Amino acid sequence: MDERAIFHTEYGVGISSLHPQTLGVQYLLKQSSQSSSVCLSEDKSLVFVSFKDKAIINTYKLQENESLNKGSNANKTGEIPVLQRLPTPEPLTNLILVKNNYLIASAVKPTRTLIYVYDLSSGSLINTIPMGKVHYNPINKIKFMESKNMVITMADDGRFVLWSLLDLLNSNDDDIKPVSVFNDHQGVGVKDVVFDKSESILLSTGDDGTVCCYNFISNYTPTREEQKPKHTVNHLVLVSKFTFPQAVLQFDIDHAGRFVLCVLKNAEIWELPLIYSLGQGKISNLHSLPMQGNSNKNKVSLYNCTLEKDLDLSNDTLMNLLRRGIISCRLIAKGANTLKISMDSTGIIMGRKKVGQSCLFVDISTSQVIKDIGTPLGLNVRSDTSEGIFIDEVYTLKLNQFLSNKAFISDMTLPNLNKVVENNHKINLLNDPVSTNKVSVVGNDFNKYIKEHVKTGCLFNINETFDEETINVEQTEFITKDYRSDELIEQKNREIEELKQQVARLSKAYNELSEMV
């Protein structure tokens, strides 16, 4: 098992192992300067990179691991060439890969905020969703909640929004409405949204210096002012609100929901405990509801976050501080630009925005630097005007994973991405029980998609009297595969026979014209 981090600067994208025993496993993606966002396929074998000023997505195939862990190759940095270049209508950002097949991204231009949804198996542009009625500022990030089939968008207009994946994949709805819109950051930018591994806790942060903690509640009773949700999902309720002395630019949550690490505007990393220790074996759960019963009766708990060094515990105990709404936080590190928590929750990968510094792997408990994973790849920050180093993703990988039979796409080749939305077709509904469409088409089964949908686009206007001569058409047996009623099958067969007769008429007329010429 190997644990790796993907990070990018204005000079390119790098991938590096975090642990000393895999020191030599480092990659540099070629032609990846001015990158905007990065995402991975589920099997960790394919990397997608978008760019700030290029209407293109580069794909890279990660190399097999065994050759980089042996002998003379142990200290070498591998450069991965571009596997494919996929043109897009305009520069895209905030790439995410959903269900290992649907590529979702937003437009870079501030004057035109759109969400693009692609089907990678066919290259189809399933949908483009204008954000003007929901987000009137550019989108900062897009995330996906697997267990709830929800896509989350957040922007500088002070909102983060939940969308149903089924709605985004449905290309027939002209006006797609979100499931929920949240405005708890006082109209200033929402910078990040994270959730724990169980996806039962959701937190958001913004320029107002607050972290809002939400719970998914199943026994929630909507008020008269609230509309009943279109989809059957647990209601998201604000439980706690934490206030910091600085704006929180980015954060990450422990996979078990025990604590949150926050990057403040002054480049400090604070540890916010969600399971708060009160001493003598007592704890307080700050991300749960304070009482049982109907959640309408529960009030939001408000807390002020303060560093433990600034607290005077000679007169107050931790329990008394908590009752007064004061949380004791710990300072982890300084000089941070962005961060991610490692998969085992023992360390953080910290990007820096400072001359001569780079991407560091730091132990959480001791705040000691374990490894510098940016400088060996030559991606360190070189000027005061640099935007710094940004951590894109942390993932674990089995060393023999690429030898498995499971492939992302056959031969690792993707079709070109279309630039026009395919209307009049409901596709890729993922066999969701909420959907009323009985015949769902799985996105990566392209042959089935062709059989079910392409034939509907081949109908011509039929002229009943082209000539008065009797045309003898050779009868051929046609078998159509349809799961609906027998009447529809017969209707399809009749349409096909009429089309064959029409083709025969046109062929005869063409032959007669050829003879006249």
TrEMBL record:
Repeat (WD) residue spans along the chain: 132-165
Keyword Repeat in record: yes
Cell location: Nucleus
InterPro entries: WD40/YVTN_repeat-like_dom_sf, WD40_repeat_dom_sf, WD40_rpt, WDR18/Ipi3/RID3
Keyword match tRNA processing: no
Transmembrane region(s): none
Annotated GO CC locations: nuclear pre-replicative complex; rixosome complex
GO biological process: DNA-templated DNA replication; rRNA processing
Signal peptide start and end residues: none
SMART domains tied to this protein: WD40 (SM00320)
Pfam families, alphabetized: WD40
Main location, first listed in the record: nucleus
Residue ranges of coiled coil: 489-516
Keywords attached to this entry: Coiled coil, Nucleus, Repeat, rRNA processing, WD repeat
Top-rank taxon: Eukaryota
Family that this chain belongs to: Belongs to the WD repeat IPI3/WDR18 family.
Quaternary structure and interacting proteins, as annotated: Component of the RIX1 complex, composed of IPI1, RIX1/IPI2 and IPI3 in a 1:2:2 stoichiometry. The complex interacts (via RIX1) with MDN1 (via its hexameric AAA ATPase ring) and the pre-60S ribosome particles.
Function: Component of the RIX1 complex required for processing of ITS2 sequences from 35S pre-rRNA.
Identification of the protein by name: Pre-rRNA-processing protein IPI3
Organism from which the protein derives: Hanseniaspora guilliermondii
